[in-house]
Amino acid sequence: MVRSCEQGIPAWVFVGTLLFHSVTVRGAALKQEVALDNGATVLNHSMSLVQRMETLLTMGNGSDVTLRVQTINTDEVKVIQAHSLVLSLQSDVFEELLLTRNNSAVVLRETPDCAAVFDKFIRYLYCGDISVRLDQAISLHKLASKYHVWGLQQGLTQYMTLHLSSDSPTGHVVGWYNYALQIGDMALRDSCLQYLSWNLSSVLQSGEWGSISEDLLLSLLQRSDLILQTELELYEALEAWISQNQPVSATVESALRAVRYGMIPPQHLFRLQKQSALMLKYYESIRDLLYLAFQFHSASPIQLAKYFDVNCSIFTPRNYLSSSWGSPWVINNPTRDDRSFSFQTQLGPSGHDSSKRVTWNALFSPRWLPLSARSTYTELGAMQPTRTDGGRPRIIVTPATSSPDFAGVSFQKTVIVMAKQQGKVVVRHVYNFHQSTEEAGDFLVDADLQRRASEYLIDSSLYLHIVIKPLYHTLLVARK
Predict the structure, then answer these.
(1) What pLDDT, on the 0 to 100 scale, is given for residue 137?
(2) What angle do CA 337, 342, 343 make, to 5 degrees?
(3) pLDDT in the model for residue 368
(4) Which CATH superfamily is domain 48-163 in?
(5) In CATH, what class is 319-369+390-472?
(6) How many whole angstroms separate alpha carbon 71 and alpha carbon 114?
(7) Spans of all domains in the chain
(8) Helix (H), strand (E), coil (C) string for the chain
(9) Which UniProt keywords apply (predicted)?
């Protein structure tokens, strides 16, 4: 039996005493907390216990098991002196390994990335805390999953969800997305996909764009909630990705057919036809889409809607940040009072509508009650918002004028809320509401704008970007 180097007592007694001390201290603390009203004082020595446990691992005192961590396909072996009681309490996988071992050594085979962080993993079992870098998250998550340390696994999933915007030399979100897909973690997968979709412009400019898989690329291209400057920006980034990755022709054709050419102004389409090597090579694969796009730009949308299904994706805008489709709006001290703002957008993406403008009025109120609760009126009888502490933030976006040109067009309004995470400005939330609705019903419903450190504020200001998405509708169907 292995004995403690310092006290000469059995290892299991040595470790067990520490763990019993932990339970005793915590139990006493709970009993004292119940009796706090009687003047009791909580004594918490858990930090000193953690330090003693860390020293126990570092010095190997009382060790009764040797972990031999072999790196797969190498001769590298990492030796860790550990304690079977601690390992068994933290992991049922370790408990089974220790019950079936033939001697004091347990051989573990790990991939190079997992072997590199195995010391950190074991330390967590002793101390309950761990320092994590972006490039270590997947490796530690693999170990936590393999050895059934569920608390650590959940903590790492949460860490990855909260650190999608962190800066890293080569990017990490795409790698985390692929890993989540591999292990079937749909929540993490969806978080990564949403981050890539909402921050696509910055992703397109990063080195991470080239590492996107074919499946992820095609999945992104199908989405209407992508936030980027223009559709032309997306086409040029796609051209760069294809040049770097050299996929098979079928993948190239699928990707090119997912581009919304109707959202690219005709002068840029003409240029691409002459100057884009990719378009020249695959022109026959997308000729029908280009022809339809040119028809879309040249004809009245009402006339086009009589003969074509204008509800398809080629005529559906994404969330474009260019000035043609909306405007940024920075609201300083958003809890102070109501604010209003006016801006103009192009009537529609069609070249036929390129010279027509729609003026929009936006109104923001930090504490605005719904219509049913409003009761104050001006001298002229116009209803005014009643602002009380019980209200919540509201935003209303309405057209300033009406026009016959609006026939066959409806407008989806999108309000993008920016935030600063890990020092980077990213999209925090996206709210969508349609022409028939003046406001987003759930706008900032969970936001505490009174708190200066609110995750919805940047330097005490609310950073918004309002996007107007004109959608054409089929009016008539021509008889064949």
Answers:
(1) 97
(2) 140
(3) 63
(4) Potassium Channel Kv1.1; Chain A (3.30.710.10)
(5) mainly beta
(6) 8
(7) 48-163, 319-369+390-472
(8) CCECCCCCCEHHHHHHHHHHHHHHHHHHHHHHHHCHHHCCCCCCCHHHHHHHHHHHHHHCCCCCEEEEEEECCCCCEEEEEECHHHHHHHCHHHHHHHHCCCCCEEEEEECHHHHHCHHHHHHHHHHCCCCCCHHHHHHHHHHHHHCCCHHHHHHHHHHHHHCCCCCCCCCCHHHHHHHHHHHCCHHHHHHHHHHHHHCHHHHHCCCCHHHCCHHHHHHHHCCCCCEECCHHHHHHHHHHHHHHHCCCHHHHHHHHHCCCHHHCCHHHHHHHHHHCHHHHHCHHHHHHHHHHHHHHHHCCHHHHHCCCCCCCHHHCCCEECCHHHEEEEEEECCCCCCEEEEEEEECCCCHHHCCCEEEEEEEEEEEECCHHHCCCECCCCCECCCCCCCCEEEEEEEECCCCHHHCCEEEEEEEEEEEEECCEEEEEEEEEEECCCCECCCCCCCCCCCCCCCCCCECCEEEEEEEEEEEECCCCCCCC
(9) Signal
pTM for the complete prediction? 0.81
Question: How do 65-71 and 77-82 pair as beta strands?
Answer: antiparallel
